[in-house]
From TrEMBL:
This is NAD(P)-dependent dehydrogenase, short-chain alcohol dehydrogenase family. One of its GO terms (molecular function) is oxidoreductase activity, acting on the CH-OH group of donors, NAD or NADP as acceptor. It comes from Loktanella fryxellensis. SMART domains: PKS_KR. Keywords: Oxidoreductase. InterPro entries: KR_dom (IPR057326), NAD(P)-bd_dom_sf (IPR036291), SDR_fam (IPR002347). Residues 11-187 form the Ketoreductase domain. Belongs to the short-chain dehydrogenases/reductases (SDR) family. CDD domains: SDR_c. It holds the Pfam family adh_short_C2.
Amino acid sequence: MTATFTDLAGAHVFITGGGSGIGAALTEAFLRQGSKVSFVGRGDYADFAAKMGDKTGDTPLFIKCDVTDTTALHAAMDRAVAEQGPLRVQVNNAATDTRMAPADITVQDWDDQIAINLRHYFFACQKAAALMGKGGSIINFSSASYQIAGDKLAPYIASNAGIIGLTRALARDFGPTGIRVNAISPGLVLTKKQIEEVHTEEDLAAFRERQCLPENLYPGDVPGTALFLASDLSRMMTAQCLFIDGGLAFTG
């Protein structure tokens, strides 16, 4: 981390899925800016929160929550504001990229994936706007997958295309109150899950060959863009989607 966004010091940032993968990198990055970070996750990330406290000097507020339970998600956001102060930045990041052949997808499978990958984004934005009142930044994480269309990912890809439409619609709706809504679309970011469960070295080599920048992407490559969109340096940017994919989506 080389840049300091002074206006983020003391700002309250709420992150969904902030305990692992890209979300964990986001949590650490905002903490290092001096932000007050709250995050939710379906698993137990208390140890991660404590580790972040040791590394950065500030311990994030972790609230265990399934983001597909809208009532619980809204309650977690209310609790975070009560304990950490007014909400300045909302980062919607929680997602699952479960792979299933189209013929095998049931109605329940579809609904379950849409619930985490798209539905929770809307209801988190809805609540964030109410908590922010006047001014703030909402950042929705999409994926470059909706541009490159990987196989066996129909609900995930449909969700991520929907996130872009949702981002633009809410940017229009929330704009009069000074709330900005933008999106970030990472490419193939090598989280622990992607390395251990999904991709072979042959897969990665093929992705690198298609990218303009032939290097692997890692979680640490993502937070800088989120910090910029959260900061007042981007105060007149809204309804935008920024890709972090080594140039894959539009040239590969």
